[in-house]
Amino acid sequence: LDVRVFVDKETASKEAASAIAQLIKTKNSKGEKTVLGLATGSTPLQLYAELIRLHKEEGLSFKNVITFNLDEYYPMSPQSEHSYVHFMKENLFNHIDIEMENVNIPDGTISKEEVNDYCASYEKKISEAGGIDLQLLGIGRTGHIGFNEPDSDWNTLTRIVTLDPLTRKDAAKGFGGIDNVPTEAITMGVGSILKSKKIIMMAWGEGKASIVNEMINGIVTDQVPATYLQLHQNVAVYLDREASTAL
Ligand code: F6R
Hints:
The radius of gyration is 17 Å and the shape is globular. Helix 1 packs across helix 2 (45-58). It is built from 7 helices and 10 strands. It has one domain: Rossmann fold (3-Layer(aba) Sandwich). It is α/β, with parallel strands linked by helices. The strands form 2 sheets. Strands 1-10-9-6-2-3-5 form a 7-stranded parallel sheet, with helices on one face. A 3-stranded antiparallel sheet has the order 4-8-7. It has helices at residues 9-29, 45-58, 84-91, 115-128, 165-175, 190-194, 209-217; strands at residues 2-6, 34-38, 65-69, 71-74, 103-104, 134-137, 159-162, 184-187, 198-203, 235-240. The longest helix has 21 residues, at 9-29. The site of fructose -6-phosphate (F6R) has 14 residues, from loops. One of its GO terms (biological process) is N-acetylglucosamine catabolic process.
């Protein structure tokens, strides 16, 4: 893993945003679309803010960008303020020139009967778009990437999963109490993530230091799904100082 430590998350996020901008421009110059894998949560907020700035102030266009989000709570209405659809619109899509038909986020309203077929179709849509060029990731304190909690194997694909109690606890504040946090989610699998051509994993703050150390230096195990990133050839890990203190 290519580990880069920055003075703070703002600097790291600007660097990551500039790598994305460069990729979009290179792809554009070849007449190709860029397929981005996106994450939610607090980690990518500064990165999305910088992408918005690059769009507004430096003319970066997302007209030829296709996106796939990693996950969505289940069940979840896209209108809910807790939905990742809402999060992505508020923090990115409403402020750039992306075509909403090129945006893909797992559908938290699909019925239990249809969910397996739906997940297979999400996976198929990613391959039909040519696969993910660049996947953004954060890491949960359980060692999850996407919502691939402990016990998620390296070859898992998009599916419905049960959230770890620690993940629900970490989400409780936003939901006004742990009881309001959904118990399930639809997530791209570890295998779906590992198929991406390039991955940028970001982690900020001392709360992530211990799990970041396990991800980078621990043995590869389904008990810490983020360790599977060690098996990928093109992963950049962007850390702020605090997140790097246990390395
Ligand atoms: C979000 C996701 C999660 C988060 C992780 C870290 O789409 O897939 O894996 O990246 O839970 O969350 P934050 O960034 O809020 O610390």
